[in-house]
Design a protein that fits this description.
Blueprint lengths: L7 H46 L9 H4 L10 H7 L3 H6 L1 H13 L3 H14 L4 H16 L11 H10 L9 H21 L1 H7 L14
Helix pairs in contact: 5-6, 6-7, 6-9
Length: about 220
């Protein structure tokens, strides 16, 4: 009969081999997620690099969205002079409207022109069905007490507008829009014409960025 003690070294050696194999497998298992993570990060960097190279990624927002006065630098001095002829003339031209909007943002009073634009859009509604949701949005945004962009309206105009929204029609905001229009024409428009940005356009210069903001 074979002595059992002679088998001990063989068993010990086999256990040692199994332990070493387990360590190698465990190490590889740890490395695989790390490699996959590095590979994924590399792919993301490559995609970002390609995106940054696309011309459209660097294009600015449309003028109608931002009122970017720097874009209005392409306006000729002759066109800018016409803006000074009347407030109607300024608002009737897209570049003029954009420039004025940008100016109002420097005074923290852009809610006035935004309300006026919203009213213009409201009056262009193609059906009575469109008037109800639009009227509700305009009222809640610009007119009701503590509205996020509340415009300065007298009590009588606000009440008259509120009552007309029971059955909205295209003229429901006419009184309120006219009141805000007069406020801009008599107060903000003269300051716009005296602003450094507008004077720069008259002289064919690009307006300076980072205009100081003030509350009217």
């Amino acid at each position: 009969m074979e002595n059992p003690l002679l088998l001990l070294p063989q068993l010990s050696f086999s256990a040692s081999k199994d332990k070493a194999y387990y360590k190698v497998m465990k190490s590889e298992a740890k490395e695989e997620p790390h490699k996959a993570s590095k590979h994924g990060a590399k792919q993301k960097r490559n995609r970002l690099s390609l995106l940054l190279q696309k011309p459209e990624f660097h294009e600015g927002d449309h003028l109608g969205k931002t009122g970017n006065l720097t874009k209005a630098a392409s306006v000729s001095p002759e066109e800018a002079v016409k803006w000074g002829e009347s407030f109607d003339k300024l608002l009737s031209e897209k570049a003029g409207l954009d420039a004025f909007t940008k100016f109002l943002k420097t005074e923290f009073s852009e809610e006035n022109i935004e309300f006026w634009i919203a009213c213009e859009d409201y009056k262009k509604s193609k059906s009575a069905h469109e008037l109800v949701p639009k009227a509700k949005t305009i009222f809640e945004t610009f007119i009701q007490k503590d509205a996020p962009k509340e415009v300065n309206l007298d009590f009588h105009t606000k009440e008259m507008t509120s009552q007309s929204l029971g059955q909205p029609v295209r003229s429901s905001f006419d009184a309120a829009q006219s009141a805000v229009y007069r406020l801009m024409e008599q107060d903000s428009f003269p300051r716009f014409l005296r602003s450094a940005a507008y004077r720069g356009l008259l002289q064919g210069r690009a307006p300076a960025r980072g205009l100081p903001r003030r509350r009217s």
